[in-house]
Specification:
The protein has two helices and 32 strands. It has 656 residues and is mainly β. The protein has four domains: 196 residues, C2 domain (Immunoglobulin-like), CATH 2.60.40.150; 140 residues, Sandwich (Immunoglobulin-like); 126 residues, Immunoglobulin-like (Sandwich), CATH 2.60.40; 132 residues, C2 domain (Immunoglobulin-like, Sandwich), CATH 2.60.40.150. The strands form eight sheets. It has a four-stranded antiparallel beta sheet, with no helix packed on it. The longest helix has 6 residues. The chain is elongated and about 95 Å long. It holds the Pfam family C2. InterPro entries: C2_dom, C2_domain_sf, C2B_Copine, Copine.
């Protein structure tokens, strides 16, 4: 509560009083702005109004703003007994329980009587002429702590009537000499007037250039330099990783890294307001500067928090490393400066969001999986929450593979467009079960950033002594696509499955297994109670490469073409519960795109000698003759004119 800042000087509004000026409330009249001004001042709004409402700006003529010229007087010294202060001003309003910044001034270096640059406050943005605003003055510090000088509360209406206010600091220590006071200086409003301006509109984007100065040395034990790059994330409560806590910082931009440079200037880039900034200038942005390392462990140099309103200020923003904050003598790990900010105006048109992406990828120095003298046979899969989206071709016997261009559709990755989370996995193809080489999880948007390389990490090896990564993945090229080509799914399929290289479960691994396959759907919560058995095959006695009898699977039974279900292979034991050999989670659409799947036993994952429990192969997965196109939940519209889809924004398939 601002009441803590103490009583205001004579003539200044007492905080929290219902009628600040002691006059009859002029705003309770039917025509508020047409009444004689109760304060004896000229009409504060000063603009021609609509008929019947003199003094109020005409609708359509623009938006009301208040132009302000102000200065500080006799501010407290914060930089030592013989120093001064580096003051800046923040104006904010209350929005429920939150405090929302509406203006932030430049820093005036070493000045106890600063003249702030004239500025404008939009009346609507401030909550109206009578809404109480908090005016705070701080002393800028290079360590980012910014000492509080003082504050007061006043509405736009009030500063038009009273031109002097005292900054109150409730935590100010009593003076050793003279009378104790909480007053930390004064604010004088030299010129305050209303004006009609063009309605405030959010810009389309900001073209930015960032530079850093005086960064910490992170290489060669502090004797080398650093290879810095920038990561910008937006505080988000609706994205794919918001989770139970309701908050997540979503990556919106990552720069290139610059070798051996403590004062880097990064390439110009653009942040769009409607997309990357979440449609708000007040979106909280976390900016981290990291040192690129070959092992993928990229050390944090320092970070800061800003909003879009800080883009136009060229004041240095301290970069703070949380591990060093509080250490004796530590100020910061360098500073970040927006050396260029070009505001791109909105034309009223927002580009249509892309629906898919074409990618060309490669990898370097991936781990050898085929013995000490062999190499690997790598391929990539891109997975979303609904399962595998796309799978590349296999590159035989190669540790530096380059894959052909492929396309994947964003709708298969979730409901968040470019902010959908995907996992890119690199596997080694084997005749008796594929092995995971490494993976990386990121958003689709991160594939478009200037930083084009990502380390592949095997989660089962993470933490092992000497292990850092399993290779480096490169995004060589990408193209956004505004239309999709996706085949529809049929109602039912004929299925024929065989096992290959299944794990021996009998006689302690010396015998064979008696395998059968279960098609199972798990309800929310999982566990045995949540399992729904859709099909059980015949048992094939003493066979690690079984061919099970054909069966039919209906798409509606698994709840749609992109709804995951399990294929589990068990070893039958007479008189006891069947042993799980291995399992794989799949979707109908995945099976239409790939016929081989490695099965894993969850209880054995992470064991040093465990690779997999074999494979299952679909030797047949074809539509039941005469089966119609599936039309239930998650259905793809049937083809028309040989096309599976239509350009974005064009109505496909002749539907109303």
């Amino acid at each position: 509560s601002m009441a803590n800042y103490g009583a205001p000087p004579p003539g200044q509004q007492p905080y929290g009083q219902p009628n600040p000026y002691g006059q009859p409330n002029p705003y309770g009249q039917p025509n508020p702005y047409g009444q004689p001004n109760p304060y004896g001042q000229p009409n504060p709004y000063g603009q021609p109004g609509m008929p019947g409402m003199p003094g109020m700006p005409g609708m359509g003529a623009g938006e009301m703003a208040v132009s302000i010229t102000c200065c500080g007087k006799n501010l407290d010294k914060k930089d030592g007994a013989f120093g001064k202060s580096d003051p800046f001003l923040i104006v904010s309003k209350k929005d429920g329980a939150k405090k929302v910044q509406v203006y932030k001034s430049d820093v005036i270096k070493k000045n106890l009587n600063p003249d702030f640059k004239p500025f404008e406050l939009f009346v609507n943005e401030c909550g109206g002429m009578q809404n109480q605003l908090t005016w705070e003055c701080y002393d800028w510090d290079s360590d980012g702590t910014h000492d509080f000088i003082g504050a007061f509360q006043a509405s736009l209406d009030q500063i038009m009537k009273n031109n002097t206010y005292q900054f109150i600091n409730p935590h100010k220590k009593p003076s050793k000499f003279g009378k104790s006071t909480k007053v930390a200086g004064e604010m004088m409003f030299l010129k305050v007037q209303t004006k009609t301006v063009a309605p405030k509109a959010l810009p389309y984007a900001y073209d930015l250039i960032l530079k850093a100065e005086g960064l910490d040395r992170k290489d060669s034990g502090g004797f080398g330099k650093s290879d810095p790059y920038v990561i910008i994330k937006r505080k988000d409560s609706k994205g794919p990783k918001a989770g139970k806590k309701g908050v997540h910082f979503l990556p919106v931009y990552t720069s290139e890294f610059i070798k051996d440079n403590l004062n880097p200037v990064f390439k110009e880039f653009q942040l769009t307001v409607h997309d990357q900034l979440g449609g708000s200038e007040n979106a909280e942005l976390s900016i981290s500067v990291k040192d690129w390392d070959d092992d993928g462990k990229h050390d944090l140099i320092g970070k800061c928090t800003v909003t879009a309103k800080d883009f136009t200020s060229q004041q240095p923003i301290p970069l703070i490393n949380p591990k060093k904050a509080g250490n004796m003598g530590y100020k910061n790990s360098g500073v970040l400066i927006f050396s260029k900010c070009n505001v791109v105006p909105h034309t009223g048109n927002i580009p249509r969001p892309p629906l898919a992406m074409k990618l060309k990828m490669s990898a370097k120095n991936i781990a050898k999986m085929d013995g000490l003298t062999g190499k690997s046979d790598p391929y990539l899969t891109i997975k979303g929450p609904k399962g595998t989206i796309v799978k590349t071709e296999v590159i035989q016997n190669n540790l530096n593979p380059v894959w052909n261009e492929f396309q994947f559709n964003f709708s298969r990755a979730g409901d968040h467009g470019l902010d959908n989370l995907i996992t890119i996995e690199c596997h080694d193809k084997d005749s008796v079960g594929d092995e995971l080489i490494g993976s990386v999880t990121l958003t689709i948007r991160e594939l478009t950033f200037p930083l084009k390389s990502h380390y592949l990490v095997n989660p089962h090896k993470r933490g092992n002594i000497g292990y850092s990564n399993s290779g480096l993945l490169f995004i060589n090229a990408f193209t956004m696509v505004d239309h999709v080509m996706e085949a529809p799914v049929f109602d039912a399929y004929n299925v024929k499955i065989q096992g290959r290289g299944l794990e021996n479960k009998d006689l302690g691994g010396l015998g064979k297994s008696d395998p059968f396959l279960m098609v199972e759907k798990e309800a929310a919560g999982g566990g045995k109670a949540g399992k729904k058995n859709l099909h059980r095959t015949n048992i094939v006695k003493e066979n690690c490469n079984p061919q099970w009898e054909p069966f039919v699977i209906k798409v509606i039974d698994v709840e749609g073409p992109d709804a995951p279900f399990f294929l589990r292979v068990y070893d039958h034991d007479a008189g006891s519960e069947a042993d799980l050999i291995g399992e794989v989670k799949v979707t109908i659409r995945e099976i239409t795109q790939s016929n081989e799947f490695t099965i894993l036993n969850p209880k054995k994952l992470g064991k040093s000698t465990y690779k997999n429990s074999g494979m299952i192969v679909f030797s047949d997965f074809t539509p039941v003759p005469g089966a119609p196109y599936y039309s239930g939940p998650g259905a793809t519209p049937p083809p028309m004119g040989g096309m599976y889809g239509a350009p974005y924004g064009q109505q496909p398939y002749g539907a109303p």
